[in-house]
Amino acid sequence: MSSQEPLLIQRSTYFMKSFSFISLPQRKVYHSEMVNNYLFGFGYQGSSSGYLILTGMNNSFILINPFTRKQMVINNSTFKVDFSCFSCQVLLAFSRGSEEFVLVVLCRISNNLHVYQSRNRDWVTYLTPQKVVDFVIFNNAIYIVTNKANIGILSLESANIKNLNLKSTPIVNSTSYSHVRLVSCDGHLLVLNVMSKEIFNVYKIDFSTMDYVKLKTLGDIALFYAPRKKYYGLSNPRMWGYENNSVYFIDLPSGKYRVYKGEDNKIPKIILQHQDPNTSLLLRQQYLDWCFTHLHYEVDYSLVN
User: Fold this and answer.
1) How, if at all, do strands 88-95 and 298-299 pair?
2) Which residues contact 23 (CB under 8 A, 6 or more apart)?
3) Which residue of 166, 266, 268, 281 shows the fewest CB atoms closer than 10 Å?
4) Where does 7-304 sit in CATH, by number?
């Protein structure tokens, strides 16, 4: 499974307790007895480095790799975690050449950024003047982006963020649909700026000029959208059975997924829909997320300290 194409994570009704992984190109479905038997009732937060990240009612984080069956539990008394699904944004990365790891958590109820390092067995809270909205691993360092499209590098030595001195930033609107997200893919740091319900711009950070460069097309890249405005990137997608210059979109309100294919010289157009807050994830079948089993994120402490 380490070379498996991206899998669609599906969760059925609460009473059936079915947690599955679907290969769209291969038309295969994989079931995890470990997750279904022991962890089905936990709050799902995300997928990272091949692990599913869940939260328990005791405020702890459960990290489980359903393919290797490795499981880790991180206790937490530093901050309050909402037990519901998607209450946090999460990122799991391992230290190069070791079993040590870093878990980055952004709580939606407080908008605070928290980082756990296994080498210290402790949580650190990062306070920033601007709201951090996303983070990725790029060149073995943790990059963050704020709601104003400012980008920084997370320090693991102290609770500091080193801001990049970029020449310009995109204009970010304040609407119910607009948001800014980061994607690390094919050696590039991409910034996604959703301006409205249908306007979707993608930029590449050019580190030689330290500036944003607007892309006319995704080229040999496919984007994967997951609920609560999470994006993944996949280079050379045709090798995995997907199409380039496309967005594979999980539509949480309808419980389905859609595919947006861009024209030769255009970015794919996506149509966002509001999530009904009264819709329960436990009452019917849902596509929750994408799982990239072949991606193993790593941080290099010599670079980020």
Assistant:
1) parallel
2) 4, 5, 7, 8, 29, 30
3) 266
4) 2.120.10
